[in-house]
Amino acid sequence: MSTGEDLLMQYQGEIVPRSFRPGFVVLSYVVSCIGAALTLELLNRRTSRNGLFNHLILVSAAVAMGGISIWCMHFVGNRAIVLANDEPELRIDYSGSFSALSFFLPIVVLLTAFVATGASYKVSWWRICCGGLLAGCAICGMHYLANASISNYHCIYDNAHIAAAALIAIFDSVVALSLFFVFRASWKNSWWKRMLSAFLLAGAVSGMHWAAATGTDYRLTQLNKHTALSQTQATVVVTCLVVVTAFFIAGSATYASWAKQRIANKAQQVVLAAAIFDSLGRVLVNPDGLLPNEKITDTYVERTREDTFDIAHPLFHWMFQVSRNWNSVSSMINGMTNHLARLPKESHDSKIRLIEDNGQLIENYDTVFRELFCIAAASLADKLREQLVNVGILWDEILFTGVDGLPRKHGRSIARKLEEGTYGVLGSDSEKRIGRQHEYGRGALMFLVRRLENPYEIERLEAAGFRFADVHQVCGIIGSRMQIKARDLKGKLSNMATYAEENTIMEPGVHLGFFGVKARVGSYGFDVVVKKGARNLLPTMPISTGRLDSWQMNIIRQFDRMNVPLLLQGLDALKKLSPREVLFASQLTDALQALRAWIDDPIFEESVLVSRVVQAPCHAPDGSTLTKACTVIALCLMMPIHVRFSSPRCESIPLTFFKVHQMVYKNSSELEAFTRYVHRELSPVVNTASVNAPQATCQQAMFWKNRPDLLRYFGRSKTKSGAAVRDSGSIPINPSRMSSSHESNHSGSTMKLWSQDFGDGQQSCNETISDRTIATQPSSLGGIMVSQEIQIDIRQVDDTGGGPSVPLKIARDRVTIVKAGTDFDFEMKSLLGPGLGEDTMYSGQPLGLAVAEREKVNELAVGGGAVLYSYRPRNLPGSEGPAVPPPIYGADGTFKLPRFPEIKSRNEQIAALKKSNGVDEEYDMLVIGGGATGAGVALDAVTRGLKVAVVERDDFSSGTSSKSTKLVHGGVRYLEKAVWNLDYNQYQLVKEALKERKYFLQTAPHLSSWLPIMLPLDKWWKAPYYWAGTKFYDFLAGSEGIESSYFLTRSKALEAFPMLKPTDLVGALVYYDGAHNDSRMNVSIALTAAVYGATVLNHAEVTGLLKNDQVTERNGKKADPITVKAKCIVNCTGPFTDSIRKLDDQDCKEIVAPASGVHVILPGYYSPSNMGLIDPSTSDGRVIFFLPWQGNTIAGTTDEPTKISPNPLPDEKSIQWILNEVSHYLSPGISVRRGDVLAAWSGIRPLVKDPKARNTESLVRNHLVDISSSGLVTCAGGKWTTYRQMAEDCVDAAIKEFNLPTKPFNNAPRVSGTEAIDDGAILNGSCQTHNVRLVGAHGYSKTLFINLIQHFGVETEVAKHLTESYGDRAWTVAAMCKPTDLRFPARGERISRLYPFVDGEIRYAITNEYAQTAVDILARRTRLAFLNAQAALECLPKIIDIMSQELKWDRTRQEREWKDTVEFLQSMGLPEPMLTATRAQVEKGKLDFSSSLEYKMYSRHDKPPVVEG
What is the predicted pLDDT for the residue at 1462? Predict the structure, then answer.
C-alpha cells in the first residue's frame, strides 16, 4: 500500500483521477427526496403569512429544504466521489466554518423564496417563478460554497457544467413548485401528487449536484491529515438529520392516518361542524380540506322505532333555537362540563354512560344530550378561537353519514359525481331514487353556519391554521372523507352560504301564499310545503298592492272556500265591475297564475282560498334590522297521503319544524322567552351537585295565549261515532287525487292548526304522550288522509304568571280518528300575538314537542313502556325494525293479514313453458338446475328484464345446496392457504366471499345471522399466529364485517363454551362468520325469481338438448315431453354439470372434480346455542366445524374424492372420524357416542378441477363460467356464499355472448306486500341482486314472533321458528295452521313433538312453495330430515295424509311416497332396522327400538344404560 509521502509526491499539484460509487449516488437522491417531501408537506400546512404557527412552518420548511434536501444530499453525494484508489490520505477534507456557512446560507435564501411564493391558494405565476429562481440559486450556491470548504483540494470547474447545473436547479425548482401550488390550489394535492413534486424538487438538487460534480476536477494541495475523521463527522451529522426528518415524515403520515380514521369514526357518530363562509362564498376548511368539527355523542339512543333523530325531532328544534341565542347558555358551559364530568362513565372507554344496566336510559337523557351539543359548540368555538356567541347558527338540515356506499352497478360515474359533490344535480329518476335510498346512514352531521364580512376575521382564522376554499374545490373532499350521504353536496354547501346571510325573509306588502299540508308517511305528524332553500317561507307571490282595505277584504270573502279553477272564473267575472275592483282582480289573477306556474304541480288546482288573511314577518320598509309584518292571502290544501308532490321549486319539511322557524327571527320576543325557559330548565341541573336532576312537574303551558287561530279544518261526521263539527260549506275534491276502491266511501278531512281554544287550561301529564313515543300500531287508513280529524293545540309559557317552569312536552298536536263525511270547512286567522298589529314584529310559533293523542268514540289511554336499547358497533341483520310494520286491527275491528303478491301455480308454470314455442314467446334464458346457483341466475336475469325459465330435475336445493355446513363465510382456511402459498386466487376468493357475505345477510336477515366461532388454543405460541390470522380476516372484511375478533382467557373460554376440555386449554380466539338455513334460502331465491316473473319448475327433468331445451314434468303421473325454446341455455347443475355438458358434446372434457363432505347432527347440548367452534388442525390436517344449528349441533366436514350419485350415503368411517375429532375438544366427562348421531348426510361438492392438484383439499372452490362452441353456458364450482356473484358473472357472460335484451323493470312487484316501500333496488337492467330482498325479508324483525303469538296464539318456540324460516310470510303460514281445542296453543299442531314444525307449513309449502313430495317437505321446507332422521320417519304418515288431501293423491301414490321417502331417509342416516318399517307400524307406535343404539344408551326402568366401548 502507498505511503502518504509517495501519494503527495505523485499527485501534489496534479488533478487526481475520480470515479463515483453508484450506491451513494442513489442514496444521495433518496436523502434529497426525504428532505423535499418534508418541505412540501410543511408548505402544504401553511395557511397564511401571519401567525406564529405559519411562521414556524415557514422556517421549518426552509430548514428541511436547505439543511436536509440540499446540504445533507451534498455531503452524501460527495461520499460517492472516489479519488485515485480511495486512499484515506486522498479523501476530501472539509473546513468546519465554511461547512456551517453552507448550511445556514441556503436556509436564509430559501426562506426568502418561500416568502416570495406566498401563502394564498390562488396560483401566482410570477411568485412561483421568483420562488423557483431563488430556490435554484440556493441549491447552486450551497454546492459551490460547500466545495469552497474543501481544504485539501483546489476545485477546477467547467463553465458549461456550471451553466447546465444552474439551469437544471432553476428549471426543476420552478416546475416542482408550479406543480405543487397548482395541485394545492385545485385541492387535488393528494399525497402521491405531493410526492411527485418532491421527486422533481429532489431532482433539481440531485441533477444540479451531479451536473456540477461531473464538471469538477480536484487538484491536490495537501494530504488529508484527519484521514476519515472529517467525512465521518459529516456522515454522522447527515445521518442524524435524515433520521430526524424521516421520523417527522413518519409521524406526519401516522397523524394523517389517525386523523383519517378519526373522521371515518365520526361518520358513525352525531357530529357538529362549522361551515364559515367569507364574502366571496368560500368555505373555511383545514389544510386537509375538511370542515372544523366536533363530536357530540357516539349515537342518539332511540327510545322507540319512530324516535329518529332528524329535523322533526324536538331536540333538534331546541338546538336550532339555542343557536340563534347562544347567550342563553354561554354562562352555563362550565356548569354543563362539570355536570357531564360527574355522570357515570363506561368502564372501558370513559365515555358517558347513557344506558343503565337494566336497559333504561339515564335520567334526564334529553338534558344530557342538549348539554353535549352545547359543549361541542363551545369546543368548536375554541378551535376557531371565537366566542361561543359568534360560532354561528344551526343549519336547518341534518346530513346523514356512514360507510354504506352506492350499489356497485352504478359504477364509477356516480361515485365520481359524489366526489365532485354534484350528484343529484341533474335530477334524473335513477339518481333521485338512489339518493332517497341513501339519505340515511349511521351518523348525523349538523352544521353551524356563519358568514364573515370583516377582512380582519378572515385573516385571523387563516393565521390560526385554516383556509378559505371555493366550494366546488373541496366539496368532494368533504363528502368522501366525512362520508356524507347526500345528493348534491355542492348545492347544499352553497345553500349554507346563502343561509348564513339570514336574508330569507318576505318583502313588505301583500302576498298570495300556498299552505299545503300532508301527513307524514311512516310516522306521526305532518309536513308543510315550503320554498326550496328557504325553509322558513311558504311559496308566495307578491300582489301589486301595498295593503288590503276593507273593500278588498269583502271581495276576498266572496271567494272563500273556492278552489283555483273556480277562483280564476270568479276573478274574471270581477273585471266587469268598477275600475278599482277590475284592477284588484287583475292583480290577484296575475299573482295566482304566477304562483301556479311557480309551483308547477297539478295538485295546486285543488287548493282553496281562505278568507282570513295572515300576518307574516318581513323586512322593514325603511331598511332597518327590525322585523315587521306583511299580509298573506292563503290558498290551503290537505294533500292525500298517496299523492306525490313534485314541484321542482318546493320541498316539504315537518310542520313542527316550520313552527320553530317562525320563532327565530332577529329580535323576536320568542327568543327572550326561550332564554328564560332554557335557564329554568338547565340551571337546576348544571348548578346542583347531584347527578340526578329532579323530575319536572307537569304544569300548564301557555304559549300563544289568547292568540287567534291560523288554520282550522272541520269535518262533518256521517256516522254515529263521528265527532261533532260545524257545517259551513263544502269544497269539491278531485276524484283523481283520492284513492278509491269498491269498499270506500267519500270522506272529508278536518284539521285544526294553532288553535285559540285552550280548553280547561290544565292538562295531566298522563293525558299527553309524544307522537314519538306512541307504542300503538301504525294507522291502517290506507293512505286517505281525509279520514282523520287533526287538532293542534298550542300552549305558551306564561312568563307573567309567575308560575313554575314548564317542560316543553306540554305543547301538543291532538290527532282524533273520526269517520267524517265529504264536507269540510277551514278557517284562517292571524299569526300575530295578542295586542300586535300589522306593523308589529312577528312572534312566531310556540316552543316544544308536538304530542299526538289518538281517540275513537271513547278516549283511549295509551300506556308507555320502557324500551331496551341494545347498542352494537354495526348493524346486525334483523336487529333493526322491519321495513314493513306488522298488521293491525282495522277500523272495522277486523284483522287484515298482509296481502303478498301471488305467484303462478305449478300448472300455470308448466303452461308457460309450453307456450315458448309460440310467436314472440321464446325465453331469453333457460336455466337447468334449481340449486343455489341456478336459482340465483334466474333471479339475476329476471330482475334485469329478461324472460327466464328455470327447471330442476328433483327439488330446489335437493343436491349440494341443502347439504352444506350452513356457513356463510369467507373461508379462514382459504386465507391461510393464500398467505402461506402466496396464492392470489385464494386471496381473491376470500375477499369476494366476505363481500358477498354482507349482501347475503342483508337480503335475507330472517334466514341468516352472525355466528361467533371459537378457535381453542392449546399452546401459548399459537395465540399470536391465530390472532394475526383472525385480525387479517377482519381487515379483509372491512365494512362488510360485523364484529372484530377477540381473545378469550381460559376461564372466559370455558364460560362461553362449557363443553370444552379444560386440559391444555390456554385460551381461545373468537371470530365472526355467518350461518344460514341453506335449503330454505335456496327455495326463497327461487320463489323471489318467480314473484318477479320467472317461470320456475321443479321435478322437471332435462332429457336432451335440441338447441332448444326439452324437459319432462314428473308429478306421479305420465307426462308428455315439453320442448322449450330459449335464446340461451345455462347449465347450473352442480355435481351433474358434466352430464349436461355431454348432452351437448360427448367429447367434452370433464371440468368437475366431485368431493364428498360428510356432516353429522348431534343433540343441542353438545354446543352452546350462540357459539360455534373450529378445529383448524385435525389429526389429518383438515378443518372441522362444530356449530349450533336449528336447536341441534352440526359437525363436519370431511373432504374425500367420490363418485356422483343423486343421494350419496354417509360412510361409517367418516362419521367415526368426525366423532373422534370432536371428542378431542370436549370435556372428558362428555362421551361422544355413535348413538347420539341424530342424522348424517353426505354432500357432493362440485369443485372446479385443478390439473395441478394432488388431492381434493387443494382444489379451490372458485367458479367457472364456460360457453361451449354450440352456445351452452356452464356455471360450475364456487360455494354457497358466492352464489350471487357466480350468478352475476354468468348472466353478464350470457348477455354479452347472446346479446340478450336487458331492460328496466318498470312494474316491479311489491314483494313486501305493501306499496309503502320498495327494495331499494333500481331495476334498470343491470345487476341488482345485492339489493333485492328475498321473499319474507321485508316485514321481518327479531320481535315479529311476539306479534305472531299475540294474534294466533302459537307456541313461542313455534313462532320463533316460523319467523326465522319464513320471515313476514309467517303470517300466512300461521293462518294456515289448524286451530286446536286447547286453551294454549290456539293454533299449530306439531308434526313432531320434538321440533317446532307445524301442520300449516305443509299446506303453505304445497300452495306457495311448489312442494310435490314428502321429501320436499321433510328435507327442504322443514329440515326435519336433516335434524333427526328417526323423527322424520315418525311424522311421515301425518305429512303424507295432509299432502294427499291437498294434492288429491290416490293410494298408489301414497305408497310410492312412503317408499321413496324411507329410501331418502337412509341417505340421512336413518338406522338400518328402521328401513323396513311399515306405515302401520309407525302409526301405531310399534317400532322395535330395543336393539337400537339409542335404546341402549339411556337408563331404562329394567336395565342400566350401556356404555359404548
Answer: 93
Cell of 1384: 294454549
DSSP state of 1398: B
Helix (H) / strand (E) element for 422: namely none
What pLDDT digit, counting tens, does each position of 236-267 carry?
Answer: 666 776 777 777 777 777 777 777 777 777 77
* CA–CA separation, 780 and 197 (whole Å): 65
What are the cell numbers at 1309?
Answer: 312487484
Please state, in angstroms and rounded to a whole number, the distance separating the CA atoms of residues 962 and 913: 26
Q: What's CA 661's distance to the chain center, in Å?
A: 30
Of 352, 332, 333, which is closest to residue 342 (Cα–Cα)? 352
Name the band, by pLDDT with cuts 50, 70 and 90, for residue 349: low
Phi and psi, residue 1021, nearest 5°: -70, -20
Q: Are the C-beta atoms of residues 1140 and 931 closer than 8 Å to each other?
A: no
- The pLDDT confidence band at residue 726, using thresholds 50, 70 and 90, is very low
Q: Are 128 and 91 in contact (CB under 8 A)?
A: no
Burial label for 1505, CB within 10 Å (0-12, 13-18, 19+), is exposed
The answer to whether 1387 touches 1372, Cβ cutoff 8 Å, is no
1161 three-class SS: strand
Q: 488: which residues sit within 8 A by CB, 6+ positions away?
A: 421, 422, 423, 424, 425
3-class SS of residue 1379: strand
- φ, ψ (nearest 5 deg) of residue 250: -60, -40
Nearest to 393 by CA among 323, 474, 490, 465: 323
Question: In this model, does residue 952 exceed pLDDT 90?
Answer: yes
Mean model confidence pLDDT for the chain: 75
Q: Residue 1105 is placed in which grid cell?
A: 338438448
* Residue 198: band (very low, low, confident or very high) from pLDDT cuts 50, 70, 90: confident
C-alpha cell at 956: 330446489
pLDDT reading at 154 higher than 70: yes
The whole-model pTM stands at: 0.50
The amino acid occupying position 1222 is: V
Which residue from 1433, 1391, 1392, 1439 is spatially nearest to 1416, judged by alpha carbons?
Answer: 1439
Question: What are the pLDDT digits (tens) for 1454-1470?
Answer: 999 999 999 999 999 88
Handedness of CA 185, 196, 253, 62 (dihedral sign): negative
- Please report, for residues 376, 680, 762, 780, the alpha-carbon distance to residue 676 in angstroms, rounded to integers and kept in the order given: 22, 6, 22, 42
Task: Please indicate whether residue 1374 or residue 620 has the higher confidence score (pLDDT).
Answer: 1374
CA distance 917 to 346: 70
All residues at 6 or more sequence positions from 227 whose CB lies less than 8 Å from its CB, including other chains: 88, 89, 91
